[in-house]
Request: fold
Amino acid sequence: MGTADRVRAAIERPTNEASKLLAELQHASDAERLTVIVDSWCRGLASALEELAIGLDELERARDEATPWVRAEAPPKLDDSKAPRGNAADTPAADPGADEEELIAKAQQSRAATEELREAASDER
Reply:
């Protein structure tokens, strides 16, 4: 049974019980009947939320099993005595604008790729 079916069943169980109870309470006041209806819907929604939480847990567990986490090792420390000597202008870090421009270009590419994925997903729906 899929998550959607479990959620639907979780809502239907208390509402069906309330319908049976209301059939027995034919001479009850409107307030009592309304209380039974509201109570059944609240219990149904609470059960549905619990089923959704269980479904999310199953999804996360499946994702974690499919993608094992790899612990990255710390990069080795550079020894200052082995650092290249020379003019600071020769190193790429000397021009902070270049790094910033690269990051901006990567961000624009990422946004374009995200937009393409969104369009593809909306076309599939």
